[in-house]
Design a protein that fits this description.
This protein has 177 residues and is an alpha+beta fold. The protein contains one helix and nine strands; from the N terminus they run αβββββββββ.
Amino acid sequence: MNRRDFHRLGTWALGGLIKLAVAVPAAAFLLNPLRKKGGAAGLGGFEDLAPLSQLKVGEPRSFGVVRDQVDAWVKYPREPVGSVWLVRQPEGAEPPVIAFTAECPHLGCAITSVEGNRGFFCPCHSSGFTIEGAPTNHVPPRAMDRLDVELSDDPDPVVRVKFERFRTLATEKIPLA
């Protein structure tokens, strides 16, 4: 091997090492959101809202959902992402607690409770709902969106809700990504 070939080989090797030193961190940076997607805490999981003893039978009660938000590479601090209505059912009913998202399926306005716990009302366009979430007029395209509920195994079980948001103006419940 002559001197010219030695320098050519050394240049290629050095260039390859430099490219590798740049490519490995760049690939890790670009693939990081894909690695985290399945294991992000709080996303798609159940949120602890309240002990069952705090809920009165047939009386709707609103609870805010606060969680960390993750958007690709950016992690936001704990912030409110929505609210949920919980309605405790009579003893022996299945499920023991019904949870509804507090967004109206019409245009996403905040749903409030009707005085006397007779149902729910959306003040934006007068959407009305029964205590079971069924529409009472023609304004909303579907019933209130029910959420999955589970209870912890504690002596005073904690109500846990799988919080999701759904597309508005659709006749069927379509989860937002």
